[in-house]
Amino acid sequence: MNRSRLLLVAFIVITFAVAATAFRASQSSAAPAGSLTAAGQMLEPRSGHTATLLPDGKVLIAGGMRRNQDFYKSAELYDPATGKFQPTGEMNERRVSPVAVLLRSGKVLIAGGYVGQGCTDSAELYDPGTGKFTALPARMTTRRGDSSGTLLPDSDVLIAGGADHDSPGGVASAEVFHPATMTFHAVASMHFARVSHTATRLPDGRVLIAGGRGDRVQATAEIYDPKTSQFLVTGDLITARYKHTAGLLPDGRVLIAGGSDERDWRGTMNRAEIYDPRTGKFTAASPLNDSRYKLPDEAVQLPSGKLLVAGGSREVEVYDPASGKFLVAAGQMNDARHFMTETKLKDGRVLLAGGYPDNDQATNQAWIYRP
Predict the structure, then answer these.
(1) Sheet of 341-344: strands edge to edge?
(2) How many Å apart are CA 211 and CA 293, to the nearest integer?
(3) Do 272 and 289 meet the contact criterion of CB atoms below 8 Å apart?
(4) Residue 114: Cβ-neighbour burial (10 angstroms; 0-12, 13-18, 19+)
(5) How many beta carbons lie within 10 A of that of residue 130, not counting itself?
(6) Among 1, 152, 200, 240, which lies 20 to 30 A Cα-Cα from 99?
(7) Which of 279, 163, 165 is nearest to 221 (CA)?
(8) With contact defined as beta carbons under 8 Å apart, do 267 and 239 qualify?
(9) CA 249, 236, 187 angle in degrees (round to 5)?
(10) Is the Cα torsion angle 68, 95, 212, 355 positive or negative in sign?
(11) Full strand arrangement of the beta sheet holding 183-187
């Protein structure tokens, strides 16, 4: 073989090797972030609805709105086995942004929410066995919309903050729902009024309450201790924010990401930070790839321990605790979706449903994220 042929063969081999290496690199960089695909349509366009994983693996989707003041009583079930949505019983009241918490009994508590011109103090239970909602005789201690609801270690539910009217600010009051007696009772108030905050249960059973809006957007945070029924002030956020998301990391720290300041649409942020319960302090984390707000309250923890952040953008992102970076998943939604829901299924996939883009018209589109 002459010299020119040897050079040609060497060039081809090197080119192939470089291409193969680049391909493997692109695959390995994309693989950790997973992928997003369309997954059919809900029976109704919804935003501000709830989505709760039931013991049988189906997802209860309840309430929400088509557009402002066009609220739903209706509910539906998503079946991961078929990938389809089917109707179930109606709520007793039209609700947007109520609390929805799966109880130890397998029933779902739906409490409060916006009902039109204001909020409600009513509550009801969904029974997966009958597919029906039953109104509770007991009322909450105050009217609340967009409050937080957290299942405590003793099976009670902490309901904190929220708005008691349609104006932007929140309230400081809190209460606990007792499934054993089906009653609500007030506990000590938070130190700061807040709505559109996040509530994250820590491994020791305490609850981190972060951000939100009172008379202004808050940088404050506090811890609810179920043993004393008291809130204790902890370190401040680095950045005041509301309508953000929070997720528990495998090591017990809490990621806070996205949200907005008082400027709302013009104040959306990509900044992120991490709370360490051992020190009671927040430290800066790498930023999101896209500024976003009006996010699901919880960034769900994937089987790998990574956190999924969705909503407020066409893209979804995954926070990797090992690298401390946000990675963009393959695939996109058809528009930026605000007030959508994010629900981890039993097989580790995540159902993303509904939300609205800038035109305030909700979608019935759903997506599946695969880790």
Answers:
(1) 35-41, 365-370, 350-353, 341-344
(2) 13
(3) no
(4) buried
(5) 11
(6) 240
(7) 279
(8) no
(9) 85
(10) negative
(11) 148-151, 157-160, 174-178, 183-187
Spatial distance between the Cα atoms of 351 and 202, rounded to a whole number of angstroms: 24
- What gap in Å lies between CA 108 and CA 128, rounded to an integer? 8
Contact 254, 245 (CB under 8 A): no
For residue 29, what pLDDT is reported?
Answer: 39
The pair of three-digit structure tokens given for residue 336, joined into one six-digit string: 């930026």
Secondary structure in 3-state letters for the chain: CCHHHHHHHHHHHHHHHHHHHHHHHHHHHHHHHCEEEEEEECCCCCECCEEEECCCCCEEEECCEEECCEECCCEEEEECCCCEEEEECCCCCCCECCEEEECCCCCEEEECCEEECEEECCEEEEECCCCEEEECCCCCCCCEECCEEEECCCCCEEEECCECCCCCCCECCEEEEECCCCEEEEECCCCCCEECCEEEECCCCCEEEECCECCCECCCEEEEECCCCEEEEECCCCCCCECCEEEECCCCCEEEECCECCCHHHHEECCEEEEECCCCEEEEECCCCCCECCCCCECCECCCCCEEECCCCCCCEEEECCCCEEEECECCCCCCCECCEEEECCCCCEEEECCECCCCCCCCEEEEEEC
Which CATH number applies to 42-370?
Answer: 2.120.10.80
Every domain of the chain and the residues it spans: 42-370
pLDDT along the chain (371 residues), means of 10: 41 37 36 88 97 98 93 97 97 97 98 92 98 98 97 98 84 98 98 98 98 96 98 98 98 98 95 98 98 97 97 97 97 95 98 90 97 96
**CA 301 – CA 249 distance, rounded (Å):** 7
